[in-house]
Structure to design on (676 residues):
DNA sequence: GCTGGCACTCGCGCGCGCTGAGTGCCAGGC
DNA sequence: GCCTGGCACTCAGCGCGCGCGAGTGCCAGC
C-alpha cells in the first residue's frame, strides 16, 4: 500500500502532465505543489511509484509520465468528478432545448459534448431494446406489398417493405392492424414475440401466410434495429492528440468508423453509472492510446442508450467525467419531455 | 497557347508527382517518359510552364510541382476518366447488392467509395426535392394528436407529430387520408402545395382547422427535409495527406463536420455530369489544399442527390473520377430496383 | 530549335559538442 | 528510519558546419 504522500505525488504528476503534456520532474513538482518535502524525497517516492508501475520514464533522465495503471489509480482513488458550473449547466440546457426532433437532439448532443470536452464525442441513438411500441402501422402499397412502420416511444420510426405470399385485402389489413396494435401498443419490445405468438390463428387460412410474413418482419425489425445507430463528432479534436500523431491518429479514425467497435466501446457501462476505460483496457488495439469515458442516459430512471467521449489517455478525467455526466443528465430530461 | 510537347511535359509532371509525392526534376522526367527530347529542352519547357503558372518550385533548385492551375489544365485537357476494370465493376455491384435498406445503401456506398479511392467519401441521401410521394399515412395517437408519416419513392420515411386544434374523429381521419393520397400519391414534391390548396374546403367547418394544421405540417416536412442528410467515411485516409499534415488535416476535419459546407461542396455539379474542384477553387478556406470530385446520381435518368470524394489536390484524377462515376452509376441502379 | 556542358544553388542528412533538466546515490541531520 | 542537500552522471534536443547531390539556368555549338 502506498503512503498518503506518495499518492499525493502521483496525483500531482497526473495533474501536471495533463496540463503541460510534458514529462514532469521532481523539482518542477515541488515548485508547483505544496508537498512540504524536498525534491530529493519526491525522487525517492517517484522511484517507488515507478517500481510499482504507476509511472514511467519515456527515456532515461527525463521526467515521469503516468502509466495506464497510474491513471487508473488516479481515477479510482484520487480524483472525483468535477461538477459543471451553473453557467455551464445553463448553457447545456439552452443548447439542447432548441432541438426539434430526435436526430436533432442527438446531433446537438454530439456537438455539445465534443465542444465541452474538446475530444471526440460518441452518442448512441436511444435504444429499442428497452423501449416500448407506440404504434404499428401497415400500409398497402400494392395488392401483395405491404409497408410496415414501427413507431417507438422514443420517437424513432422504422419502416420495412413486406412482400406477401398472397394478395391481402384492405379489410384483412385493417383487421391485422387493429389486432396488432391492441396487443403490442405500449408494450416492451422484449415482450412482443410472446404477445404475437398465436395471432395468425385468428385469421382465415388464406391470409395466415401473409400474416405470418408480416409478423416475422416485425420481429426481425425489433431485433435488427436493436443494433443501434451512432453519431460521432469532434474528430477535429484528434489533432490535439500529440506531436507524433500521424501514427496515433490513423488507427483511432479507423476505429471510429467501425460502428461495431464503437458500440462495444460504450457497451460496458456498469449500472453504477460512468465507465472509464484507460489505454490498454480498451479491447480494440487502435484505441490503446486513448481513454473512453462513457455513461448511460435515458428518459426515465432507466438507461436506454449510452454516450461518451474518446480522448488521449492524457486527459482531464475529472472535467471530462463531469461534462459527460451533465450532458447525459440533460439529454435524459429532453427525451423525457418529448 | 502551349505547344503539344509542353502539354505533354505538364502531363508527365502531374503523373509523376501524384505517384511519388515528390517534386519532379527534368532528368527524372526524361527517364520515365519517352518525350524524345533531352533534359535541357524539358528544362526550357518547364521554365515556360512556370511562367504561365502551371507549375511551381517549392524552393529554388528543387523539382517542380503542379499548381492548382496546372491540375485544372490536366483535368480539363490532358486526362480522361479512367474506366473501372470489369472485375472492379463486378465487385462494386456485388457489394452494393447486399444492401437491405436505404441507410444500408448509403452506408455501403460511402465505404466503397472511400476504399476505391483511398480518400474521404461523402454521400448525400437521395433528395426529396425531385422525388415523388409514394404514400402519406395518418395515425391517430390520441383524440387530438395525429402522427403524419410521409413515404417517398426513394424509400425514405419522415414522420411528424401534429397537435390538432380540435379532436378529430377516426372517420374524418380516414377521409382525409384517402383524399390526401388520391391527390398526391405519385406526384412530385414541388407540385404538392398546389394540389392541396383547396382541400380543406371539402371538410366540415369543425374539421377544417385540423385539416389545415395537418396540411401545413406536411408542407413543412417537404420543405424542411429538402435540407439533405449526408454520410461521410474514410476519414482515416486523411492521414495519407502529406508529411506536414497536422496543420493540413485539422481544417479539413472541421469542414467535414459541417453539413452545410459539405452540401455546398457537392452542390454545384453541372448537368453534364462530374464536377472537379481543385484547391482554391473550393470556397471553404479549410479545403484550399484539397480537391473535390463529385457527381449526381439518381434512380432514373435524373439526379436525385450527389456523392463524391475529398482528397489532396495531388490525387489520381482519372482514377478517382472513374471510381466516382462508376459508383454513382451502380447506386442509381440499386435505387431504381428497390 | 534542340543539345551537351558547366557553374551555381540550396535543401537534406550527418556528426559534433553543448546545454540543461532530470536522475540515482550517498552521507549527514533531525 | 526518514528526510535532505550535494554531487556526479545521463541523455534528448538544439544549433552549427559541412558535404552531397539533385536540380536549375545559361550558353555556345550543331
Amino acid at each position: 500500500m502506498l503512503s498518503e504522500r506518495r499518492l499525493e505525488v502521483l496525483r500531482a504528476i497526473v495533474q501536471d502532465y495533463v496540463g503541460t503534456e510534458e514529462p514532469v520532474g521532481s523539482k518542477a513538482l515541488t515548485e508547483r505543489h505544496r508537498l512540504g518535502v524536498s525534491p530529493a524525497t519526491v525522487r525517492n517516492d517517484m522511484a517507488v511509484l515507478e517500481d510499482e508501475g504507476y509511472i514511467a520514464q519515456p527515456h532515461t533522465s527525463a521526467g515521469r509520465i503516468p502509466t495506464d495503471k497510474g491513471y487508473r489509480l488516479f481515477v479510482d482513488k484520487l480524483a472525483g468528478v468535477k461538477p459543471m458550473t451553473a453557467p455551464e449547466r445553463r448553457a447545456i440546457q439552452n443548447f439542447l432545448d432548441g432541438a426539434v426532433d430526435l436526430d436533432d437532439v442527438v446531433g446537438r448532443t454530439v456537438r455539445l459534448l465534443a465542444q465541452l470536452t474538446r475530444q471526440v464525442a460518441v452518442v448512441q441513438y436511444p435504444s429499442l431494446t428497452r423501449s416500448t411500441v407506440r404504434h404499428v402501422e401497415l400500409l398497402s402499397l400494392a395488392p401483395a406489398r405491404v409497408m410496415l412502420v414501427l413507431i417507438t416511444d422514443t420517437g424513432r420510426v422504422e419502416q420495412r417493405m413486406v412482400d406477401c405470399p398472397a394478395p391481402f385485402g384492405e379489410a384483412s389489413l385493417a383487421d391485422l392492424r387493429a389486432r396488432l396494435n391492441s396487443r403490442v401498443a405500449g408494450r416492451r419490445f422484449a415482450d412482443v414475440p410472446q404477445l404475437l405468438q398465436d395471432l395468425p390463428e385468428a385469421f382465415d387460412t388464406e391470409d395466415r401466410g401473409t400474416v405470418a410474413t408480416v409478423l416475422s418482419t416485425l420481429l426481425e425489425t425489433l431485433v435488427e434495429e436493436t443494433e443501434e445507430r451512432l453519431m460521432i463528432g469532434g474528430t477535429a479534436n484528434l489533432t490535439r492528440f500529440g506531436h507524433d500523431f500521424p501514427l496515433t491518429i490513423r488507427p483511432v479514425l479507423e476505429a471510429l468508423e467501425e460502428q461495431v467497435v464503437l458500440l462495444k466501446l460504450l457497451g460496458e457501462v456498469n449500472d453504477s453509472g460512468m465507465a472509464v476505460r484507460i489505454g490498454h483496457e480498451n479491447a480494440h488495439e487502435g484505441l490503446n492510446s486513448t481513454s473512453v469515458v462513457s455513461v448511460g442516459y435515458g428518459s426515465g430512471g432507466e438507461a436506454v442508450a449510452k454516450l461518451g467521449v474518446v480522448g488521449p489517455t492524457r486527459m482531464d478525467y475529472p472535467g471530462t467525467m463531469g461534462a459527460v455526466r451533465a450532458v447525459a443528465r440533460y439529454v435524459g430530461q429532453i427525451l423525457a419531455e418529448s
Q: What stands out?
A: The CA atoms of residues 266 and 315 of chain B lie 18 Å apart. The first helix of chain B runs from residue 4 to 20. The interface with chain A takes residues 101, 103, 134-135, 137, 139, 141, 147, 149, 151, 157, 159, 233-236, 238-239, 245-246, 249-250, 253-254, 256-257 of chain B (CB under 8 Å). Strands of chain B lie at 55-56, 65-66, 120-124, 133-142, 145-152, 157-163, 230-233, 275-278, 290-297, 305-312.
